[in-house]
Protein 1
Amino acid sequence: QECSRPKLDLLFVRRFCRIQAVLFPSWSSQSVLMFATLLFVALLEQLVVYQVGIVPSQYFKILGEKDLVGFRNITVIAICLIVANSVLKSLDQFISSLLYVRWRQSLTMHLHKSYFKRKVYYALNVLHDELDNPDQRISQDVERFCKGMSTMASNLIISPFTLSYYTYQCFHSTGWLGPVSIFIYFIIGSVVNKILMGPIIPTLVQQERLEGDFRFKHMQIRVNAESAAFYRAGRVEHMRTNWRLQDLIRTQRDLMNKELWLYIGVNIFDYLGGIISYIVIAIPIFTGRYKGLAPADLIELVSKNAFVSIYLINCFSRLIDLSTTVSDLAGYTHRIGELQELILKLSDSHRKSKNSPQKELPSFEEDSSDSGEETESADTAFTLEQVSFTAPSSEELLVRNLTLKVTAGHSLLVTGNTGTGKTTLLRVLSGLWEATHGSVRMLTPFGPRGILFLPQKPYFTDGTLREQVIYPLKEIYPITGLADDKRIVRFLKVTGLVSLLKRTGGLDERVDWNWFDVLSPGEMQRLSFTRLFYHQPKYAVLDEATSALTEETEGELYHTCKQLEMTVVSVGHRSSLEKHHDSMLHLLGDGKWELAKIH
């Protein structure tokens, strides 16, 4: 990240255009229609602004001529113009806000679609460390990018029209010297601001990365508060969190120091523009171009020309003022663009992968029986042929040339010391990690009547008790109303968690707590088994799934698995597990392994 400093270059343009393709998917899209409406309102607003701008010159002439009737008429017109301008400006802001919401929804949903597809979210958060804080890029950077875009939208789209119109008016009033002087002034201001913006963009990207790290540290403490409290780790976590804060504050100060020079440049350009406008107006006056005009007419002309020149400079000033927003926008564009590129790379590599276990299998919520494909799912879950694998960050083989077949009715126990690759084997089976050599095939789909994994660390989503049990399904399975309630209650009784019904207020009552904070480790494992029994897969892959339970409870749960005709693949250390399995794979380390029948 440090070697490639983000900046305003062709890479920025490519990434920006890729994002725009998401925000404006077609000419008939809602975003295009809203943008066209914003353009129309902004144009109408500029027409009214011009009329409001020349009102003072008309007042000067009428007051100079002491015309009471004209004064009344111009006052009524001025009030109507001000009301119209206020309404149009408010509509401009309202449509810009609607565009912000629309763009954020479109871009976030587009990223979500790719992020949650297959195992991309897992690869980004676990396997790839070249991209920091993908969650922050989706939730925060997208929001700030869309906010910046909506802020700039009306100014940018109307600029070509206003610049053309007021350049013509300025030329008509002052000759070629007026617009040429203002254009030169703008070019000098643009070059200076481009130079001042250069160091800001990479510093902003660095600040956003450190913001994500600081937020992640607090989230880490929130999730693991109890474990930290048992260690009495308040002081050390205080120190380490302050380290993250100091890194962030140091970068923010660096950013503010760099932005100071940009602000100075922007403000000088803004205020110096007022003097330039009067110099432009003074030249034709002192050269005698308006020699024959009466004082009242000259005052009217000076006021009108001053407005035209000042507004033309103001148009350029607004573009220069946007340089701060553009620098921020460029930083967010690079961060979102990097995320898009890595997601695309991971998606492409997944499609090209030849060893993906679930390559042609239905997703969790699809019924494999309706797929029209003949599979070996009735007899076989996995086949491994001469498989070797390592951890992603290591070249040391954990297992070498493993040949294995998991078939219906023959449960397998995987044992071995810590670090010999037991959990890694399950990751390879599920397709989360790639084997370095050999063939891994999953011949039965995930889900009901297929395969279900219970990971070592139980996971519970936000939602009701029912949603925890049926997870990861979005709706009840099978969809049978009251019958489904009875199944859930039955399995809650089997796992000894029927008391949860009272604690939560029922299956469908929303709870405002974090399930990880409320449930003990043993309760979390029992609720995971409730989920397993509800789905009733043909094969259950269990990673230390009973480590927090007594041997008696463990025996009851495995007995229920057998009653539900599940074939289990278990990882564990307890000798009490052996009686629930038919064979045992013992991982010895250094790539060695032994496979033997238990009984």
Protein 2
Amino acid sequence: MMILMGEWGGGTHVDQWSSSQHCAPMLRPPNPVSLVPGAPNGLQHPSFRRINAFIREFDLVKVGKNTSVKHKIRCRKFGGPWNDNSAPTLRFRSVSIGERCIVEGMIGPGASVGNDAKVEPLSVLREGSQVPAGVLADGNPAVHSGSADIDPNVCHSSLVLESIKVLWLVVQLYLFYSFLFIGQILWTERLPKGWRYKPLFEWVLLLTTASVLSILFSVVLKWVLIGRRSPGLSVSLWKRATEFVCDYHFRVSVGWLFYVSNLSKVWNLIMMMHGLDIDLVSTINVGSILPSKVDLIEIKRSFVSAGVSFGMNGRTKIVESSIGYFATISSGVNITRSVVRSMVHIRESQEDNQSDPSQSNLSWTYYPLLEIQYMVMFGLVIVTLIPSFELFQATVLESSLPVAVVGIMGSIVVQCFTWTCFLRFYQFMACRLQSGTAWHLSLYHIYLAVAFAVRDWSFWSLLWGTSFMGSLLRFLGSDVEGRLLYFGVALHDFYNLSFADRTIVDESIVFGHYHVYEALTLEPAHASGILHQGTYVLAGSVLDKDVEYGPWRTTVGSIRNDGDTIADNV
């Protein structure tokens, strides 16, 4: 049976200048949550919970004790229609999660989860859903899939463990300073004295050296604290603490270098050093494979996209396969010669003898070209720092405080604009080469890396929800036909993207490309209607106007809809 769906008519109108980050404190639902004395920021959790996710509308969320939340909770939802006579609405509803629950999927506004219930990964509780106590909710939309088997060790936490995590943040800070100090010893006296750009290049070298040393230290941490890991959930305080330490340090360490080398085969070597059974041919996203899981995963001659998650109760083997974005692979699953679509949950082993990964094998020249172009990109990134550095030198140093403040703000604006122009340049170069050649493919992958980095470095999120976001997309080559409300998460292949008038993109992804194995497909993608949280629009998609898509759906090809239901996307 399907979990009951509720209806709620409340909401508020939003316009082109609205932003959900700023609306939440001002707009209250008809039935505001009563707060528990002593609960910080309104989030009701009078005893220990494991909340490993971001909760924006925290004053609308109630979480019972001994509950584990692994996916971010949103208490808002955009609605329509958006036409000349009416503006879109943004409605808020409270969310309630009971005691001893495990939430690994998406919870919609107004949803309620009873005690001892579990929401599976990639499952979606639609708006107003009610999950009875002890029920396993699975699917999109989630349905009653049996009784929940709750392992108390997943939900249990302790004051000692949380204290260790906080203390490690302090240790991590001192480690970073130590690596910077080593870099200072190595580079300070080696750069030419009196050189105008010595401070700029010195800081770049210091950060790069600190990142490299931190990654090498991550290898040492993994083998000293975890060693060779066996399958199964970690129960003891020591194992859980050491896994947190190693994973957190790894995530912090790879940040800067991953931006400028995300597909480099150097990462394969680094993951081998951590214990991952992988070859140099495979392509992985290191953010998906943490040190606490590397011993349980084997990857051979495969492509593994970003956001892929793996179970920990058994060993996973991926051979000659292509794993799509945000897929979930259960413990003990073997995937051989198969193509796994984006946003699916694989629970059983599979083998597809019809799949032929050899058809997408890359030319031998691709790999050295890619590494060379990463080095060129790294050098050009340093060059893009010069304009803002010059402005900083002219307006901040030896200036009064008011002038210095204006100079700092101006330097940030100039740097963001420079990086955006840098992205436009790379897009121009990538689109001028003949498609399918090793030069084109390697340069295009560098272009995608630049887009990934510039999106975060240039503070584009400050433009979300404003008409300036549409202007930015037009500058980058996208076709924005009219009004657009954009609230992230990611955009790629801007020249291949178009947005119909009155489109709302809410925490969704719009790409003009997709990968199957190493084969890169580039086609236009047309977004329209309302893209709810987690919607993934791929190359070749043509969405209908005034239709709602998602949440957590992948669209490929022409999507049509009859009636007022969600479109039949993949």
